[in-house]
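P.,

For your records, the input lines for the assembly:
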Amino acid sequence: MINIDAHNHVKGKSIYLDDIQELQGTLYALPFDATVAHAKISAIDYTQAIHRTGIIRIITAKDIPGENQIGGILPDEPLFADGEVHFRGQVIALIIGTSEHHCRQAAKLIKVTYEELPIITDAREAHAQNKLIMPPRSFSLGNTTQAWEECAHVFEGRTDVNGQEHLYIETQGAYARPKEDGSIIVSSSTQGPTAVQRMVARVLGIAMHKIEIDTVRLGGGFGGKEDQATPWAVMVALATQILHKPVKMAMHRMDDMRMTGKRHPYSADFKIGLSKDLKILAYEVTHYQNAGAAADLSPAVMERTLFHSTNAYYIPNVFAKAFSCKTNLPPNTAFRGFGGPQGKFVIEAAIVKAAEALGVSPALIQKTNLVVDGNELSYGQILQQTQAHPTWNACMDSFDYEAQKERIKLFNESNSRYKKGLAIQPICFGISFTNTMMNHARALVHIYHDGSVVVSTGAVEMGQGVNTKMLQIVTQTLGIKPSRVRIESTNTLRVANTSPTAASAGADLNGKALQMACVALLERLKAVAQKEYTDQIIELKEEMVFANETKTEITWQDLIMKAFVQRVALSENSHYATPTIHYDKSKEKGHPFAYHVYGTSIHEVTVDCLKGTYNFDSVNIVHDFGKSMNPTIDNGQIEGGLVQGIGWMTLEEIIYNEQGRLVSNALSTYKVPDIYSVPKEINIKHLETEGHELAINKSKAVGEPPLMYGLGAYFAIRDAVKAFNPNVELAVNAPYTPEKVLMDLYRRR
Amino acid sequence: MIQFILNQQVIHKQNPGNTTLLDFIRYDENLRGTKIGCREGDCGACTVLIGSLKEGKLEYISATSCLTPLPNVHGKHVVTVEGLNLPGKLNQAQQAMVDCSGTQCGFCTPGFVNSMSGYALTSKDPNLEGAISAIDGNICRCTGYKSIERATAKLTEQLQNKDQKHPISWLVENDFIPEYFLQIEDRLKDFNLKYNTEGEIPIGGGTDLYVQKHDELHDMDLNYLFDKSLLNRISFEGSWCTLKSAVTVSDLITNDTLLEAIPNWYNYLKLVSSTPIRNIGTIAGNLANGSPIGDFTILLLSLNAKIKLTNKENESRQLPLKEFYLGYKVLNKTEDEIITEITFELPNSESQFNFEKVCKRQYLDIASVNTAFTIKTKGNIIIEAHGAMGGVGPIPKYLSKTCEFLTNKTLSTEVILEAEQVLQSELAPISDARGTVEYKRLLARQLFFAHFIMLFSDTIKMNDLI
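Structure tokens returned:
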């Protein structure tokens, strides 16, 4: 089934935040932010700004009736800076005016006097100064200290990987309107309506039941709107509370890039030990996460880094430690993969480093160590239904890897200006929120007595096609056509206490809840039909009642009307909580993931060794979808995730200067892939597997895993660079921009 | 007052002010299908089509409405996604995008649909390369582009039987565009209103000013030059080419004489920005913004171009382009002078031209270093050389010392290696978002070598140089 939004999208009729028709008298809000990264605010003069034409009010911390606090995991993040600023882009005040232009002009008239404090932008420096968001955590399996002695080969090294700007094409925004009795409705471009509701309540000092959050869809999220859509929604809600007027904010791109956090940059030290036959016996890693100036989701992101530190490999002795380091950058946040990719990057670099030193192909070490059923991971989960070998083998066979390798060898022997590189990237990614208590969802289904159906879940549509999957569940369960069903906006009045749409779990959690609701309705409706066809097996399909597999005369609409007349409940609200999962943080052991997703990709790149530029020839993937309930949408997630991952590893370079100023602050200086920079060919094959009971319809979660195929892009380029400049020591420092490639091509020993 | 047609509707606007077409469409006319992604022409979410009469014939271009000053559409037809919708069904571009799942979050989609429909309108010889090129200014963050590529291929296939004699009626009959397009040409011909501005600050396509000074422009006294008909002509006299100042890069990339005179002209110009920006960015703007990495500045410096400056009193003077740049964004011109003409000699059988540009992203990006060279040889002797390099100092650098060194030398590996030493002595790069000093110097060397490797592949080999 094609994405149900596609028709409206191509006609320009889909409604995003900034497309909501404004009520008369709507005011505009512009955040006013810090221009230094760390300072005491000794004075602020708003006088000129407040008197400018079109300015209604300037709101600051002292106007907040509740708490000046929006920290989700840790209470360490004020909505408005109060006395001190900890990063450039931290919001100090909110300017409210009759137009955005008026607000922008007024912003230039605000005078802030700063007393500057020392600035830290680097995670290792923060660690050295003991500036941590929270105490470090470590995962341990076996005993690495003893294991080193058994190793034939031991290698150590360091890796660095930069952050990534989400670059959702729709920027952050929110629109608040007053209702009666001090209640407020906020339309928010958020992945987490409940999180927004909770923070609005906290800051405004009112109960959650007075706040309605409504989200129709997002123009892209990628994690950037999981926690960081919240401040803007809280700000407009606060302005609405104070002014009793509708207040809107749709952020300018450069404001958005400057004020919001990104994927976490990480630095890491690793030590890897292998046996003579290339079994990895021991692995130690220390991750330094650059969290930025407040916790945001960093503790959870760091946790997922630890969970994925050994990627798809079984290593009997592991010690993985992570520090969440506090720096003077905007608080970094969720981004597709959520720390997992950064964890995997280090083990892949360690394997490549070992392979280069031993003169073997990294693929040999990778394959030798892939997980199998029964393997225990460092956090205690015992793997079942592993698909690491099957996807690897299918990928090698169906894309004829050996022939490709031979072809590339010949190419490199006969070309001096152009060199090709090859890399394989296996993935193994855990599905579930690592915070067990978040793995639940609810769905509300109403059948109206004309037979039409309306559905609300906690899932937010952001292009991933979750609403289409929800529709499929309804139509399949109730046996009705898609046109009878409307998937409504995500709204906190209809579905309460939701988890954000994140962790690739949106379809699984909400889909399971929705399936339960539909099954309950189905049973009640079948009971109605049963009265007329006693002792026969009732089914609903093709919009008709079937009795003993024979079509009856009762249509869907007839059946609904009968049920209505008989006073049968035509609404259902169901709750689902993932079974089997648990985790004990005090021991760092448990079974945090419902299941894992596997896959293998092969990357081929050509590097122009004169200019340092590169093009990807192909990426071939075998992916474990389970039983995909929508191959069209799932393939779209693979292609999109892969390209986003390649972007992170190649072009996308976030640059902060030493003063903590974002230099790559616009689309002109921060480059995401365009149509010419994607691989010439992307081939995706589905591995036929049973799927997993905890996946909706056995169709495995697909949002985040494919991003990690992108890691292969880095190592493919490195392979090509090595072909040109073989005997040189290369750092591991992503992204591999054309600049770093050229410098490495001509680096001397 | 300005007057134009927005989709089907005639718009009269008394004081267009200095608003952009984008703001007008979305907030004055409440057409919310056109999206805001970046407001600097780098994402294409706001792409619209603009149709205007060229010698009596209606021609369309795609353009980023975020950088288009509203007065620049005076007398034209502006098409937004709403104006491409057919009653009761999808148009061909929309259908292809739906069929191939080329839309996920959908926010970039109207921009793509506009660019694709624009290709349907403008293509003379529909082919996949051209169709992809038409969407080269559109950024999508969800799909990874493969599905969009497939949609584009499908659209191209459907265009194969396009009637080039009666394109509009063919496109209407075949569901590419709605029926009202049939009347647009005649409706525009009935327009006869003139729009004159005589403000202090000249603005051409707006592609740089609206990026650099968006907020300030709101209150500036602007002089709109884009449509002053005297300013958009390309002419040839013998081996000399003259460009009027409002010539766009798209005018140049499609010019037959230039395509013939300079091999690879198309490929070089494809490296300059993206289709919708090339359609509206003017050549004089590229020179006058004084950027040290302006692609066209570098190109024209190496063609040893001369420019004509004209002041308010209509007095003109000519000077070599290389004398135009005095310091970072400091130009050899008075407040009221504007560039009215650019003249250069076309390369001929004895002289060869090459352009190189490296940036983070190959297309739609600003160079880390860009460089061009024109080298005239007689036998094995370099008799004249003009070269320029951008991104290596405060101004777009005409490489006078390197050129002087090369002149009258025999073409050889040794000479090029020595010339590279001279080249480095002329450069003063700084570290910034586009690269470190070390990188820019290395890249300068590599691209300098690339000129000779490309132009004299028989005698000059990469392996001998590095």
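Two observations worth noting. The first helix of chain B runs from residue 21 to 28. The domain at 2-84+185-224 of chain B is CATH 3.10.20.30 (Ubiquitin-like (UB roll)).

Regards
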